[in-house]
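User: Hey, my collaborator sent me this sequence without any context and asked if I could get a structure. I don't really work with proteins. Can you help?
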Amino acid sequence: MSRPFASVRARATLAATLVVAVALVAAGAAVLLSLRSNLLGEAGTQAERSAREVATGLAFAKPYDDLPLDVDDRPVQVVDEEGRLVAASEDLERISGTGVDAVKPQPAATARDGGDDDDDGADDDDHGESLEPGEIGARTTVSDGSATIDGDTEDYRFAAVPVETEDRGRLTVYAGAPLSAEHGAVNTALTVMLIGFPVLLAVVAWVTWLVTRRALRPVEGIRREMAAITASEDLARRVPVPDTHDEVARLASTTNETLTALESSVERQRRFVADASHELRSPIASLRTQLEVAAAHPELLDLDGAVEDTVRLQRLAADLLLLARLDAGERPADARVDLAALAREAAEGRRGVRVRAEEDVTVAGSRGQLERVLANLLDNAQRHARSAVEVSVRRDEGPHGAGGGGQAAVVAVADDGEGVPAADRERIFERFVRLDAARSRDDGGAGLGLAIARDVALRHGGTLTVRDTPAGGALFELRLPGA
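Assistant: No problem. I've predicted the 3D structure and written it out in C-alpha cell form, which is a compact way to encode the shape of the chain:
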C-alpha cells in the first residue's frame, strides 16, 4: 500500500489507541480510588465495631482483664482522660497513629513518661462530647497507623470511641482493623491493570489497523484506477463503486460523475477544435486561391470576394476568441447597461426590425458582450424571418433563471419565420450547429452566434430560451437579473 494510505492507517490506529489508553487510565484510576475507598470504609467499620465492643464492657464496669482485647490479633488500647494507657492487647509490641505510643499499661507514677503530647492526643479525641456515666460516645474518630503484634507489623485503620465509666472516669478505646486486605486488593487490581491494559491496547491497535485497512481498501482501488486513467488518458473508464453505501461509495460515485463531466468537456473541446479548423479552412483556402489567381492574372482579381472572405475570417476569429474567454471563466464587467437603449442601437439600420421597450430597464454586466448577444439574436431572426422582426424590452417580477427570484430584465426577439422544432430547441445552442444543412456558409454563418449568446447570458446569471410565437415563428427570450 502506498505511503499516504499507510499514513492514514497509522494516524487512525494511533488516535484510537491513545483515546482508549486515556479512557482506560481514567477508568482504572476511578476503579482503584473507589476500591480503596470502599475497603478503607470497611476497615473503619470493623475497627469501630471492635472499639465499641470493648467500650461496652467498660460501660458495664468489667475489669480490664475481662475485656476482649485480643480478638483476631487486632491492636486495642484503652486510655484514660489523662493520657495513661490503662489496658492494651497482650502481644502488642509497637503502635503508631493513635496518639498514644505506649504498648504496656503504666503505673500511675510513670504513666506520663514520654511527655504531654499523649495527653493532648487523648483529650482531643473526646473533646466537646458530654457523656453520662455508663454512656458510650456517638462520635468515632478514625485514623491510620501501624502496629506490631507478636512480631508481625501491619498497617491499620484505628477507630477511637469515648466511654464514660462510673469508677474510672472518661476512657477512650482505640481499636484497629488491618489494611492488608485493602493493600492486597488494590495491588492485585493495579497488577491486573498494568498487565491487562497494554494487552488490551495492543488488541485495540491491531483491530483498528485491520479495520482501517479494510475501510481504505476501496479507496486504494479508486486511487489505482485513477492512476491508470491518468496514465492511459482513457476518460471512458470509471472507478469501482463499493456496495457499502457509505462515504467511500459516495466518493467513488462523485469521482465517476467528475470523470463523466471531464470526458464530456474534453469531447466538446475536441469537436470545437475540429469544427473551428474546418470553418477556418474554407475562407483561408478561398482567400489563398484568389490571391494566387491574382498573382498570376492580376486582371482576374475578385477584390470584393477577397474582402468578404477576409471579413468573414475576422468575424470567425473574434467569435472563437470570445468563446475561449468565456470557457476560461472570464467574469463580465460590473457596469450598468440600459437594455432599451442597447436594443435600439442594435436595431438601428436593420430593415424590418421594430423595437418596443420600457424605459430604464437596466442590468449589471459587460456592455460589449450584451451588445454581441443582441446582434447575434437579430442576425439569426433576420436570417429566418419572412418579413418582420420584433424586439421587446420589459421588466418582469418573476424568476430570472440562474439568479433565482426577484426582478428580471427580459429581452424578447421574435420573427415571423417557420420557428424552431421542439426537438431542436436545445441543440441550436450548441457550437457549430446549423439546422438548415442546405444553406451556404456565407448566408448561415459558422453556427456560433446562438452558442455565444447563451454562454454570455449564463455568465451574466441569466438564461436564453426559445419557443414559438403565436404566429408560428421563433421567440428568443433573454432573461437577466435586474440591476
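In plain terms: The chain has four domains: 3-39+185-227, 49-181, 247-327, 335-481. You can pass these C-alpha cells on to your collaborator as they are.
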